[in-house]
Amino acid sequence: MIKTYKYSEISKDEIFARVENKSNVEEIVAGIIANVRANKDAAVLEYCEKFDGVLLDSLEVSAEEITEALEAVDTEFIDILKKAKDNIYAFHSRQVRNSFLINENDGVIIGQKVIPIEKVGLYVPGGTAAYPSSVLMNAVPAKIAGCPEIVMVTPPKKDGKVNPHILAAAYIAGVDRIFKVGGAQAVAALAYGTETIPCVDKIVGPGNAFVAEAKKQVFGKVSIDMIAGPSEILIIADRTCNPKYVAADLLSQAEHDRMASAVLVTNSEALAMGVSLELERQIPLLSREEIARTSIDNNGKIIITSSIDEAVEVANSIAPEHLEICVDEPFMYLDKIKNAGSIFMGKYCPEALGDYMAGPNHTLPTSGTARFSSPLSVDDFVKKTQFSYFTRDALEKVCRDVEYFANKEGLGAHAKSAVIRFDEE
Questions:
Q1: Active-site entry in 322, 324, 351, 362
Q2: Of residues 79 and 228, which shows the higher confidence score?
Q3: Annotated catalytic residue 321
């Protein structure tokens, strides 16, 4: 059963604290990366057999397999994927940044270029659950950014094929190449390349602890979006909320992972009791009952505060990945929220809406990192470079300033590189 606390009884560090399974993930991942770097396709195929239980003839998904998948997926789901893509596109297209040029001083031109990243690798989970939504959320912003090549990796099923719903989403989103590999070995292949899988410039997308650790270890060779932890949700709700809805929203994240955290913060003891009872009623009805039960019992919490304003303080202090504000006038509190990955406003905006159809991205900062980082966006798929142009006259105007500044830092060659151009005078 979910644990209930008064806000004064628990520290902010404990609110999203998890019961963790200690393991040597770091060491295992380092070994996998080293093996893939050394043995390339052979290592990847070995891990596919070991971890996915399938001996593959080919790592790359063929055009025929994509056609087969499109035929296998019902047309209603295809239509829903297209609607979701349109919503994601409409939101993310507003994020596009433009290059700029400044030419305000005689003889000086400075500016910034916004350039798409050449090759992007998308990791799409396919373990305890397959996520075609993640394909759309990662690929659509990359397409908007103008990335020339988008490569996707995702684990194969026991029959050696990729989940058809994932392939359908990849086709609709415009993914260029798809490979049947998951886990740390997929991240290693994207980072260092194999005979079949090209190395990329950036890897994005969520995964399990091994995927997260692999992204951490290859960072520097390639860029990554973030180190994503287990899913988390914090719901702020008052006494007017229906406990059935609140419990269902908590379970929408608890069913992701045994390590997921689902937390309710409320100023109503009656709602707290109602949600606790409702969780016990709903959990046995879930297809992923065992996962949700473990998450709620180990990591779930109800925190009782003196007011909704105090509940907002709780949210800001722990910076949740998903934040629901389930009150009648949620916009009263929007400006007060400083730290959250994505905010869901009102009683009819469950977090699941954001996972699929709303439009904002569902790849979000976890583990308190929303204090300083942002949801996945078009910005993640571009890089910026800057340029400067000075005429001789323009340089002459600031030459002595450059010299003086450089000498203050003890860098005589810096100073000389500016004044040497006028030494003949």
A1: 322
A2: 79
A3: yes
